[in-house]
Amino acid sequence: MSNIAGTIKSIRDIFRKDPGLSGDAQRIEQLGWMIFLKLFDDKDKEKEILNRKYKSPIPSTFQWRNWAEDDEGITGDELINFVNNHLFPELKNLKVAADDKLGITIRQIFDGTNNYMKSGTTFRQAINKLNEIDFNSSKEHHVFNVIYEEILQGLAAKKDTGEFYTPRAVTQFIVDMVNPKLGEKITDPACGTAGFLVCAIEHLKKQVKNIDDRKTLQQTITGSELKPLPFMLSVVNLITHDIEVPQIENGDSLSREYNSIKQKDRVDIIVANPPFGGVVGDGMETNFPLNYRTKESADLFLILFIQLLKDGGRAGIVLPDGSLTGDGVKQRVRQKLLEDCNVHTIVRLPQSVFAPYATVNTNLIFFEKGKPTKEIWYYEHTLPDGQKAYSKTKPIRLEEFEPIKEWWKNRTESEVAWKVPIQTIIDRNYDLDIKNPNKVVEEVVYDRKAIINKIESNQSQISQILEELKSLA
């Protein structure tokens, strides 16, 4: 583990010396496309051995092996000139057949990506460092996933976009509970860097027995991501998890005309953390029926999810408290959800699960399309004993979900679990923000004397500070 982690760290240190790179997002984008080309070439070599007729969609001049692999290769101005004036223009305008999904993906990646490095010598140092990693050795492949998550967490959030990294424990728990089966069509229409899809792939790999199964797995995982950087990272992420041709669209799922989604487009499973708190692009809401038009991205995504699921299809998604409550369109969206789907479980998460990127309260919503909701089980996930909040260094952990998994199979009311009949929800105007009625509130006995002493001691400290300040004035 340490050697690859060390390699990536060294590359990031080299990047810091280059005047062209400023900020983590640029460093990650730079590292991202370099890793993409190196990884792609490593996979190409593997395919060439297995199939003599295989031809890479990347023209040979621009394959990693032919300009980057030789440690003594081009450097300085020659390297910068090659990358900026030949490599990028060629890959942005890659000539590919209409059905060459992989070629199209490469073109889309480079269309939204840049080379920021200005010093060819630092660039060469970074390339030579990256050459120490062999993405084909399976041992390293696993380790790369770990590093990759580190990189993603480093990127995690630009606060204004309503997007952030979903903690691994949350994606894992959702996928475990939705429990995809090999052959089911699985999608994440707001896939970010593909965390949910990778969890689903790992879950399904345990069911793969032969070559046909592998093929099925390759064909049944799809996603969509609008922003160039997460889109590129999602493609890299899927390739490292053995998906040869990642079926990731580079576009906005909300731009699809709602009524154009027909039976053939529908899926068995949706696992997603749609962007929330964000405002959707201009006019996007007009793709949706009048009744459900809103600028709030989470609500539109929810309507899209209902439309995308087949009857009997299952979903596990993250939603903020704001989507569980509110009037007007928000209420109509929830009513549709409860009438078209059986919302059987809502797990209420503590506020800090997505810290430091978002401080809103979030919920995990599990539903099945095709039957109306009769009752909803709520489960309140509480912080581990003695922990005040989650943080970047102390994130939510998978083992914390063990009690919920136990309860899931055999549901009973408790201090953290309660059941609400649909009539109660209808009477509340479909408001789903239902607080835990079974919570035991500890009595706080105030010791007046102690409080008075505390205030007096604070007062005297304040007076002291004031006196000192006056003497300085």
Q: What does this 3D model show about the protein?
A:
The protein is an alpha/beta fold and 473 residues long. It has two domains: 2-135, Up-down Bundle (Ferritin); 156-427, 3-Layer(aba) Sandwich (Rossmann fold), CATH 3.40.50. 45% of the residues lie in helices and 12% in strands. The protein has helices at residues 2-16, 23-50, 64-67, 76-92, 101-111, 120-130, 138-155, 168-178, 195-205, 211-220, 228-240, 297-308, 329-340, 402-409, 422-427, 448-472, and strands at 186-188, 221-225, 247-250, 267-272, 309-320, 341-348, 362-369, 375-380, 417-421. A nine-stranded mixed beta sheet has the order 3-2-1-4-5-7-6-8-9. Strand 4 (267-272), helix 12 (297-308) and strand 5 form a beta-alpha-beta unit. The longest helix has 28 residues, at 23-50. The N and C termini lie far apart (58 Å).
Multimerization state = single chain
Which CATH architecture of the largest domain?
A: 3-Layer(aba) Sandwich
Q: How many individual domains?
A: 2
Considering the protein shown, what is the CATH homologous superfamily of the largest domain?
Answer: Vaccinia Virus protein VP39
Inertia-based shape: globular
Alpha plus pi helix count = 16
Quick structural gist:
The protein has 473 residues and is an alpha/beta fold. It has 16 helices and nine strands. Helix 4 packs across helix 6.
Summarize the helices and strands and which ones pair or pack:
Layout: H1 2-16, H2 23-50, H3 64-67, H4 76-92, H5 101-111, H6 120-130, H7 138-155, H8 168-178, E1 186-188, H9 195-205, H10 211-220, E2 221-225, H11 228-240, E3 247-250, E4 267-272, H12 297-308, E5 309-320, H13 329-340, E6 341-348, E7 362-369, E8 375-380, H14 402-409, E9 417-421, H15 422-427, H16 448-472
Parallel strand pairs: 1-2, 1-4, 2-3, 4-5, 6-8
Antiparallel strand pairs: 5-7, 6-7, 8-9
Helix pairs in contact: 1-6, 2-11, 4-6, 5-11, 8-9, 12-13
